[in-house]
Amino acid sequence: MRIILSIIEQSKKCLCFILCTAMLIFVVHPGIASAQAQPTQLRTYLRQGVEKSFNMESQAALGLFRKAIELDRENPLGYAFLAMARLFNYELSFDPNERTQEQELMLKDVDDALVRAQKRIEKNARDGQSYFAMILAKIIKIRWAIAQKSYLTVFHEAAAVWDYLEKAKAADPQNFDVYFPIGLLHYHLDHLPAAARFVSALFITRADHDKGLQELELAAQKGDLLKELAQAELVSVYINYEGQPAKALAIVRELKEKFPRNYNFAFAMANALAELQRFTEAFAVAGEIERGIQTGSPPFAPQLLPRYYHVMGRILFNQREYPRAEEYFQKALADTSVTNARTRVSSLVRLGMIRDVRGERGKAKEFYSRALEIEGGEGVARTEAEKYLAKPYTPRSGAPIP
User: Is the confidence at residue 6, as pLDDT, over 80?
Assistant: First the structure.
């Protein structure tokens, strides 16, 4: 049992990333099981709510999801969407009191969705819509359990999600949206340690890098309300895992144009351009972000400054302007709020990489260790911290030593 608990502890970071980090990175919301099976007006409200969420118009999104509930109070999808919108608000809010309120409302909506979905499934074991609503609700429960450090709950709920995914897919083979969460699990479970992959294969599903990537691409091409979410996830995958920033740029450029208020797409676009060494364009996008923060035009806020400092540091790092990059990463560390955890982790990792480039291995390891100590910083950067703590970062050939 102690071994399994240790494996679960190792797995929690990846499970969090798999099941909900896409919402943190791009702040978008999943869709429904089958467009054809939904009453036209209900589906219209859900689709409009999703679009408002993508464009970071949170109050308008909440209102549309409430309208969907009013049309059919026994349909679990409306409550699941409302809960996802609450999670959206919780993750992006900079006000502790507001975060607490949104969390309480979110958990109530989760319970409402699960109760109604279970009642419908008892009457019809092939109700794909209800299974999909339960998937959304369970994903939210996993995010909450991670925040509470209840890792046994995380593992148990992840297994339940997979069971519901299989049932939703069997009930509606034409539901291409379902390939998004399936692809997430197949693809990202492959990044777990070997022991964790073994346990995941026993209780959830086997890791499969190629199949997972194909499923994500299928959802991005043929999905309905999950299409943009799958596209957003592919941006992260292409930049952070596949080393294909050109593919990421093509997708994120379209998303940025379609949802101009969503600053997350601007950050992702600047990163993709930096990876492609198109530095003039990358700085131009970063400039747009800075002007938005300075003017305070909603949804921009001063609390986004650490992310701006980080993206500037990343561009300069890729440009091999290490001293200037270091200045920006240090600025990003000044904000120690919970909402800035991931930015701090990534900044510390980059500072460690700079020390490795300079041959200062001891100082590099200090930065990597500090990155691993930050709670709430799960994601790609944390994995990089573990990697470079074990083996020094080596820049691509031709990089000057500052």
Answer: no
Residue 32 has pLDDT above 50, yes or no: no
- pLDDT(89) > 90: no
- Give me 70's structure tokens: 């009013």
Over residues 391-402, the mean pLDDT reads 69
Residue 257 burial class via C-beta count within 10 angstroms: exposed 0-12, middle 13-18, buried 19 and up:
exposed
Q: How far apart are CA 140 and CA 95, in angstroms?
A: 20
Which of 157, 185, 351, 343 lies closest to 264 in space, CA to CA?
343
pLDDT band at 397 (very low <50, low <70, confident <90, very high): low
Q: How far is the C-alpha of 113 from the C-alpha of 84, rounded, in Å?
A: 11
Cα 242 to Cα 291: distance, rounded to the nearest angstrom: 31
Q: Mean pLDDT, to the nearest integer, of 249-267?
A: 96
Query: How distant, in Å, are the alpha carbons of 21, 152, 182, 312, 357 from that of 146?
Result: 12, 10, 20, 30, 35
Q: Whole-angstrom Cα distance, residue 317 to residue 169?
A: 44
Q: Which residue has the higher pLDDT, 399 or 225?
A: 225
User: Strand, coil or helix: what is 369?
Assistant: helix
Both structure tokens of 376: 């709430």
Report the range of poorest mean pLDDT among 65-69, 325-329, 374-378.
Answer: 374-378
Going through 146-228 in order, the beta strands assigned E by DSSP cover: none
Cα separation of 283 and 316, whole Å?
9
More confident residue, 228 or 216: 216
Cα–Cα distance, 98 to 265 (Å, whole number): 25
Residue 120, classed as helix, strand or coil, is helix
Query: How far is 313 from 331, CA to CA, in rounded Å?
Result: 9
For 66, phi then psi, to 5°, come to -65, -40
| DSSP E strands, 137-295 | none
Cα 209 from chain centroid (whole Å): 18
pLDDT at 59: 93
The residues, ordered by sequence, that sit 6+ positions from 73 with a Cβ below 8 Å of its Cβ are: none
Three-class SS of residue 296? coil
